[in-house]
Structures are given as C-alpha cells and as structure tokens.
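Lecture notes, part 5. Sequence design as translation. It can be helpful to think of inverse folding as translation between two languages: the language of shapes and the language of residues. The source text, in structure tokens, appears below.
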C-alpha cells in the first residue's frame, strides 16, 4: 500500500540519527508520500539530520531546542512562511539527566524533575498549541511514550513520571482540539536501542528481557513504530483521538515472565 500520506505535510521533531524512532517514523511517512520538515537540537545533530532529510526529499531542516522557546516560535514562523498550513506533527523528544536514570526514583532532584518535565512533557503541549494555528483543515499529532508511565521499570524513574504526565496531556489536548478535527495520540513503544535509550542504566538487560518474554518473542523495530505512526497520522485513524497505542511486541499484556525464564 502506498500514497496514504499523499498531499500531507508534517513536522518531525526528534531525529538524532538513523537509529532514532523519529527517523523510523519519518521514513515510513515518506514512503507513503508525505512531505516532511525536520527539526534538530544543536549543530552536531544538525550534521546528521540534514543528509537524512535529503534522503526523503526534505529541504526544510530547522534548529530547535525546546528549552529555548524562541527556537520553537521560529520553527512555526518558518513553516507558516514556507508551507502556510500543516497536517501533522511528530514529537519524539525526551530527556533526563542520566545520573538520575539509575537507582531510586525517590532521589530525583528538584532541578532534574523540572527539566525532565519541561523537555519530555510540556514541550509537546507547547508545540501542539502552535501547530494548531497552522492546522486549518484538521490534523493529527503524535508523541512517543513508554510503559514506564504506568508500571515501575527499573531505572526509568523520573522519565516514567514525565511520560505519565505526557499521556495525560495527550488526553487533555485531544479534548481541547477535537472540535477543530485535530487528533492527538501517543505510541507507547517497546524498548529500542537509541541514543536516549542508552542513557537508562541496564537498558540492554531490559531490552533482552523483553525480547525473551514478549508474546512475539522479540523487540520492535523503528520501522514497525513507523508503520503504526502512519496509521495514526493518516485518515485511516480518523475516528481515533486521545489514545495511547502500544507497539511493543505485546509485552505490556504480560503479568509475569515466561515459566521457562523463571525455571532457568
Ligand atoms: P533519540 O535519542 O534518537 O531521540 C531523542 C531526541 O530528543 C533527540 O533527537 C534529541 O535531540 C531530542 N531532544 C532531547 N532534548 C531536546 C531538547 N531540549 N530540544 C529538542 N530536542 C531534544 O531516542 P529515541 O529513543 O528515538 O527517543 C524518541 C522518543 O521516543 C523519546 O520521547 C523517548 O522517550 C521515546 N521512547 C523511546 C523508547 C526507546 O526504548 N528508545 C521507548 C519508548 C519511547
């Protein structure tokens, strides 16, 4: 199937390199005919993102650090000038101090709690509000979350709390923007080896555990997350908003490890 996104223009935020979940999403969207713009955080990522953007025929590549609101404004000003309107936004941005992605959640500092919440949660609300101004004929927004929002995952700590707030903001934003036919959803992805994922202590152990214990007996690829994103950003999901959709090889339905694992 091709052409599901033909005639649609969207912004992709959160590509760091070709392992990023945002890149998996962007490449699937491009295959379906979407026209894309990209943001990057800082010059070092910019040097990686530009050639990737070129691969999918995109010439709009803009700097954006969500801690600096003027750069967020500049992105939407540029899109208004170059495109005039927008059909979708992908927000795949998360950050927390890696010194606090280990040990106890209880030891989270006030400073890192606030920073994690602003970058990993509030930035979606801030981006969403600006995006709606360009979504004159409806639209679809997507953010990325993880099951550490609803269950205690070792070392995920303050990121889990930020993802819980992010998922709640998906529902509130869906309520706010529904009357404008703008839909807001999240994908809860299973663990993927990325730069952000590597910041979590023992990430490799968690990934291997999910690989062995998920119903599909594997972890997911960024292309599989991209496939689900195409559904949520295209008209195929026109009746779906405020949802958190799991793309995790089924891991979230399990109550305990496989019996073979327990006996080992
Ligand atoms: P990644 O490192 O490839 O992407 C994270 C992105 O966040 C980077 O592009 C980085 O530049 C951006 N970012 C961080 N701080 C920023 C800031 N201040 N301003 C602008 N951008 C900023 O890692 P990823 O795993 O692809 O992460 C994308 C999203 O997916 C994150 O929200 C992450 O929490 C989520 N997620 C990841 C996994 C996983 O296992 N990797 C699982 C579920 C959800």
């Amino acid at each position: 199937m091709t052409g599901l996104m033909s005639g649609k223009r969207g912004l992709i935020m959160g590509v760091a390199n070709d392992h990023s979940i945002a890149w998996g999403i962007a490449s699937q969207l491009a295959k379906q005919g979407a026209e894309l713009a990209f943001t990057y955080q800082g010059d070092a990522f910019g040097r990686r993102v530009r050639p990737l953007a070129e691969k999918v025929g995109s010439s709009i590549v803009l700097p954006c650090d969500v801690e600096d609101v003027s750069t967020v404004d500049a992105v939407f000003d540029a899109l208004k000038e170059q495109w005039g309107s927008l059909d979708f936004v992908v927000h795949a941005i998360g950050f927390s101090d890696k010194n606090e992605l280990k040990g106890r959640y209880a030891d989270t500092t006030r400073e890192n709690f606030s920073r994690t919440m602003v970058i990993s949660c509030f930035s979606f609300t801030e981006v969403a509000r600006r995006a709606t101004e360009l979504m004159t004929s409806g639209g679809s927004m997507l953010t990325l979350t993880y099951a550490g929002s609803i269950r205690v995952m070792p070392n995920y700590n303050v990121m889990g709390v930020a993802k819980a707030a992010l998922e709640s903001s998906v529902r509130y934003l869906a309520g706010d923007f529904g009357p404008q036919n703008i839909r807001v959803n999240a994908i809860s992805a299973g663990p993927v080896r990325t730069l952000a994922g590597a910041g979590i202590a023992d990430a490799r152990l968690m990934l291997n555990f999910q690989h062995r214990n998920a119903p599909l007996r594997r972890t997911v690829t960024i292309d599989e997350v991209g496939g689900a994103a195409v559904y949520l950003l295209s008209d195929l999901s026109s009746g779906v908003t405020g949802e958190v959709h799991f793309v995790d090889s089924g891991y979230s339905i399990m109550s305990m490890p496989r019996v073979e694992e327990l006996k080992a």
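The translated text above is only one of many valid answers, since several sequences can fold into similar shapes. The chain has one domain: 9-263.
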